[in-house]
Amino acid sequence: MDKLEYKGTWNEVKGRLKQSYGSLTDNDLTYQEGKEDEILGNLQQKLGKTRDEVVDMIKSI
Fold first, then answer.
1. Neighbours of 54 (CB within 10 A)
2. Tens-digit pLDDT profile for the chain (61 aa)?
3. Cα 33 from chain centroid?
4. How far apart are CA 10 and CA 2, in angstroms?
5. Which residue, 36, 61, 58, is CA-closest to 47?
6. What single-letter DSSP state applies at residue 59?
7. How far is Cα 6 from Cα 23, in angstroms, rounded to an integer?
8. Which of 22, 29, 42, 51 minimizes the number of CB atoms within 10 Å of its CB?
């Protein structure tokens, strides 16, 4: 998957996460290349879930 495809996929995931979890903001879901651990940590804190739960949640969307 190239960067453009990945970015498009991430935008779809962001939209679905925001629909499912209304407390998430654009700032919570801002993704910068190389910041995967940081965004997963932010989502863990915001949603009160473990890293594995967050990863599974994202994969299921």
1. 20
2. 456 676 778 888 888 888 988 888 888 888 765 678 888 888 999 999 999 999 898 888 8
3. 13
4. 12
5. 58
6. H
7. 24
8. 22
